[in-house]
């Protein structure tokens, strides 16, 4: 996975951290490069942002080997075992600690510019860096944050080698990493732009976050007009949302579907708006035949799209599940350029039948590897589509993606597809 820059990495990482929104977290960026990434995460989660200033205490004759770390507030973490095995004297410990404390104080004062530290005692804390090489600094940050009273420590980074991630899972309560390439030599090789982050940028981002606290996307109960029918829905538009995704629910489901709501949360965390709404009224949903009337469902979705266009001018995408995927593709086939992208989760695109060749929107088909019948139907639909299309099989997943990590993978795939096709891309 290649990132354009730290802004892109932060937006993608935010999508993978969407499940922590309800935990009311604090986001801490490791200076300097981790702060631009953390800024995007904090804004997407509606969380306060601060910097985590940590200084590793290195063995005098082998600086890469840390015998401890210090953090603000007088936090001091020492490995007595390394001190003993490294034959580090008390005088050496005191000397290294004095020098690193002075640097820690200088950095903290420089970055915060008289603002107090954000309190983390008893909170869920997300420690963010722009990438992890050995993991030593990240591990020290986790230790310091825990010593400062954090109730739960989550370490997040766009990229890291697999062995470092495995080790860091023993240091943090949770590790979220988007890419763990085996052929890893340096963090910068996974960025198109990995230019140095100056102190001034760190200062500016922290000041901006403090002056303009991020507001999470709060879903608004709406009545969606779909032709003559009024349908219950929830519209969430994060601040500055570049696009909005409409959810077309499948057979026997509704806007309350926990799976679609989980995906919507991940999209919101990545800065995308969402509209969850029912395609059928309650009396209509009671008649099972209506669930498979794809033409009616597609007409409802088309009408709802016209209604949404009156609420926001940003690009629109469709996310469909089961029979809702067929409705999304049917509607997309008649919507021209109105629909910018379509994602199907465990869908029945085959039910769109003869309308498939008319779809122009880039389409992503996601199917569980153990959902064999639906997988075959998606392969048939893929061959009928004439638009940009990709079929992704989630190994080991069944129709509802209930297996650990399966729905998270769906969310990541959907986020990346919509971000690629609905939001402006840097040249």
Report on the architecture of this protein.
This protein is of the alpha/beta class and 427 residues long. The protein has two domains: 205 residues, Rossmann fold; 203 residues, Alpha/Beta hydrolase fold, catalytic domain (Rossmann fold), CATH 3.40.50.1820. The chain has 14 helices and 16 strands. The strands form three sheets. The protein has an eight-stranded mixed beta sheet, with helices on both faces. It has a five-stranded parallel beta sheet with strand order 2-1-6-7-8, sandwiched between helices. A three-stranded antiparallel beta sheet has the order 3-4-5. The two termini are 18 Å apart. The mean pLDDT is 88. This is Phosphoribosyltransferase. Pfam families: Pribosyltran.
